[in-house]
Design goal:
By secondary structure, this protein is an alpha/beta fold. It folds into four domains: about 130 residues, Rossmann fold, CATH 3.40.50.300; about 60 residues, Orthogonal Bundle (Helicase, Ruva Protein, domain 3); about 90 residues, Zinc Finger, Delta Prime, domain 3 (Up-down Bundle), CATH 1.20.272.10; about 40 residues, no CATH class. It has 19 helices and five strands. Helix 10 crosses helix 11 and helix 15 runs antiparallel to helix 16. The protein is globular. The chain starts with a helix and ends in a 27-residue tail after the last helix.
């Protein structure tokens, strides 16, 4: 049976929900669709935000022949086949999902067909095209940025998929989806199939039947990430990896996990092992680049490294102490010696006078001259 998300997918802008900045009245993508304007573009946005739907609506409006490929599994031979089959009397649209997975050689191969107009390319990606799409191809495409769906948009999509739901059920679904319509529709379909009625209890049971019990905005979410951070802080790598595994299995956003690791590297490890911040940033970048499931390995690598690193919170504590003085005393006068003398008047007033690069004089404002932050 065709999945629910596919069954209720809109075929025109009349039924499309969300992305008003692109498809609202007078907005660029709506105008292009209404005027049947053929051009190549890239849709950059999070999962479940409408990229595939917009590509199909656009191709339908052009009455074009549409080919769909996933860059995860497609290659040059697939492009050759499409070009050979493409009718000359109609526009040919190639929708390339996850275009960031095409390597430079594959993108180079695609370029002349886009440049000549043989193919109208619609690329879809969750990654920044500036880094993932080669400059010559990017220069021939317009980039449209999609945002996570709002609560209102999710309400409308959920209403289309299910009979009227109780307010607590609707709120649960919106929180679980976190801006991703496909995620909401997937759990609705599973729940209907298993239990019939869609209620909060049934939704939780459907998650548990998949060995997942996790609400990305609820207590389980906060408790698990807290346990993960505290395990790394206590240098308990086994516990850290266990709580990481729980988050991974629950489908937690890998960038959320990696972001917490970057913070941890400065807050808890700090000066004891400065390379920890380098490792944590590399983990974040890897998660941006490769995504699940492979980035789970990188998260585990980073978590084990951070857990085993020596800890030193002195830089963090120093920042908080300095912030306390700022809040207590406000903007205290900066010593003239280290002010920037950008005008003649400022020089005459003594700005920058006596400044030397490797001075040993205390540069703190007079009122807090004796304060010590970094212990």
């Amino acid at each position: 049976m065709e999945p629910l998300a596919s069954r209720i997918r809109p075929t025109s802008l009349d039924h499309f929900v969300g992305q008003e900045h692109l498809v609202g009245k007078g907005k660029p993508l709506r105008v292009a669709i209404e005027k049947k304007h053929p051009f190549s573009f890239i849709l950059w946005g999070p999962p479940g935000s409408g990229k595939t739907t917009l590509a199909r609506i656009y191709a339908r409006a052009l009455d074009a022949t549409l080919y769909e490929l996933s860059a995860v599994s497609a290659g040059k031979d697939d492009i050759r086949t499409i070009v050979a089959e493409a009718p000359n009397e109609k526009d040919t649209v190639l929708f390339l999902d996850e275009i960031h997975r095409f390597n430079k050689s594959q993108q180079d191969f695609l370029l002349p067909f886009v440049e000549s107009g043989k193919l109208i390319l619609i690329g879809a990606t969750t990654e920044n095209p500036s880094f993932e799409v080669i400059a010559p191809l990017l220069s021939r495409c317009r980039v449209f940025v999609l945002t996570p769906l709002s609560e209102e948009a999710l309400h409308a999509i959920i209403a289309r998929a299910a009979t009227p739901l109780a307010q607590d059920t609707l709120a649960w679904l919106v929180g679980y989806a976190n801006g991703d319509a496909r995620k909401a529709l997937g759990i609705i379909e599973s729940t209907q199939s298993l239990y019939g009625d869609v209620t909060v209890g049934a939704l939780n049971k459907a998650l548990e039947s998949s060995h997942i019990r996790y609400d990305t905005h609820g207590e389980e979410h906060h408790d698990t990430v807290s346990a993960f951070i505290k395990s790394m802080r206590a240098s308990q790598s086994d516990a850290a990896l266990y709580y990481l595994a729980r988050m991974v299995e629950a489908g937690e956003d890998p960038l959320f996990i990696a972001r917490r690791m970057v913070i941890f590297a400065s807050e808890d490890i700090g000066l004891a092992q400065p390379t920890a911040l380098v490792v944590a940033n590399a983990v974040f970048r890897a998660c941006e680049t490769i995504g699940y499931p492979e980035c789970a390995i990188t998260l585990a690598h980073g978590a084990a490294y951070l857990a085993r690193s020596k800890k030193d919170r002195s830089a963090y504590d120093a920042l908080r102490a300095a912030q306390g003085d700022v809040q207590k005393f406000g903007n205290l006068p900066i010593p003239k010696k280290i002010r920037n003398p950008v005008t003649t008047l400022m020089k005459d007033l003594g700005y920058g006078k006596g400044y030397e690069k490797y001075d040993t004089e205390n540069y703190l404002p007079d009122k807090i001259k004796k304060h010590k932050y970094l212990q």
